[in-house]
Amino acid sequence: MKSIFLKSVLFICFLIFYCEVMIYYVVLLQCSWPHLEYSNQFINSFQQNQPLKVMLLADIHLLGSRKGHWFDKLRREWQMYRAFQTVMTVHNPNAVFVLGDLFDEGLWCSKKEFNYYIQRFHSLFNVPQETKLFVVPGNHDMGFHYWMDDYLKQRFDAAFNISSVDLITLRGNSFVLLNSMAMEGDGCHFCKSADKQLQKIANILNSNKNEKTSQRYTNVEKLQNSKPIFLQHFPMYRSSDKNCNEPDSAPPEAKFQIFREKWECLSKEASDKVLKLLNPRVIFTGHTHYGCHVIHNEDIHEWTIPSFSWRNINNPSFILAVFTPDSFAINKCYMPKENTVILTYVFGTICFLIYHLYHVTRKLRVRVFKKTH
User: Fold this and answer.
1) Are 135 and 160 in contact (CB under 8 A)?
2) Angle at 140 between CA 137 and CA 145, to 5 degrees
3) Angle, CA 316 vertex, CA 79 and CA 302 arms, to 5°
């Protein structure tokens, strides 16, 4: 009897450990850093700058006090924590970019709850000392343009030391980070400030990297003649997701829903402005909770990254990217599916019950045999 009890406890512990910890290693070890194409230009760049390994994710949506059951909150946060920390252990990126909607209720929460949000974020998405972490704001962090005010914007910006438009350089690669909600184009002071910053950064990138000007940006290293990588929360302008064919793209019923400019995507006017001023080599966005890959102006690739949370999508994913000043490569990595974990629990429970049923019936047969003989 003790032997059966011990085996049962060990089986239950293993099932939980596998579903809550081990499965993340099993799945994420199947993804690897992409390989850059080798050329003379790449080799020269490689000698000057070691390739930069970057993880990109979006739409974490840490739950607040208004929405979601406590178990829902616990389950989703554990899933994100386990996935993210497994990536840190297995792949060890040089930098991490989170593309908005860190918080689900950032636009409604009090100062006390916002500080708790910040604490939880840094606890769940803790990075090694040598890894740099950057964020861009999303509409759930400070509200859409009509909701955003000085207080909400300033407290988020102060918490992560960001502004409406930021220029960051890492190993010779220039990253431009933009607050999508400040691109409304209605002449408000948020938009005017963002326009000025965007124009200033465009001038820096297009004027042979004037070192005196670039010193105004504290995260800027030595700039090189390289097209920037552009990151924001909203996707660039597109009519819908109908041309998105990624494995994690929107379901058929949602693909053909028309995008409203400044709500589901950046306005066409703002998108054209960004493309003209920055001429980025690649764009990364979030917001829709589903994956998409589109091409602008025939050669500018945009990847929309789905939500990192099971709460928004069954098969979350993120991107591993490798950059040099003149080259880049992308690899999309999928996390364990929520229904796979649930089915594993169900299958394990069925096996557990069958095992016990077998032993119970076996004992009954033994007793019957002894009585009859």
Assistant:
1) yes
2) 75
3) 140
Closest CA to 249 of 191, 207, 288, 199: 288
Half-sphere exposure of 181 (CA within 13 A, CB side): 23
pLDDT at 149: 92
What's the N-to-C CA distance of the chain in angstroms?
24
Element (H, E) at 195: helix 189-206
Distances from the Cα of 203 to the Cα of 140, 184, 199, 218, 278, angstroms: 31, 22, 6, 17, 9
Dig out the tokens for 319 from the structure.
Answer: 């991107």
Q: Strands, E, within the chain: which ranges?
A: 52-57, 95-99, 132-136, 165-170, 173-178, 229-231, 282-285, 292-296, 300-304, 317-324, 327-334
Which pTM value belongs to this model?
A: 0.90
Which residues make Cβ contacts (< 8 Å) with residue 296, sequence separation at least 6? 236, 271, 275, 283, 302
Whole-angstrom distance, CA of residue 145 vs CA of residue 149: 8
Residue of 189, 171, 170 lying closest to 179 (CA atoms):
189
The residue among 160, 145, 146 whose CA lies nearest residue 103 is 160
Q: pLDDT tens, 348-369?
A: 999 888 877 876 676 666 565 5
Nearest residue to 302 (alpha-carbon basis) of 238, 258, 251: 238
For residue range 78-97, what is the model confidence (pLDDT) as tens digits? 999 999 999 999 999 999 99
Using CA atoms, how far residue 368 sits from 253, 357, 360, 363, 372, in Å, is: 60, 16, 12, 9, 6
List, in order, residues 6 or more apart from 275 with CB less than 8 Å away: 236, 296, 297, 300
- Listed in sequence order, the DSSP H helices in 18-135 are 23-28, 40-48, 70-90, 111-124
Give pairs for 161-164: CB < 8 Å, separation 24+: 162/134, 162/135, 162/136, 162/137, 163/197, 164/190, 164/193, 164/194, 164/197
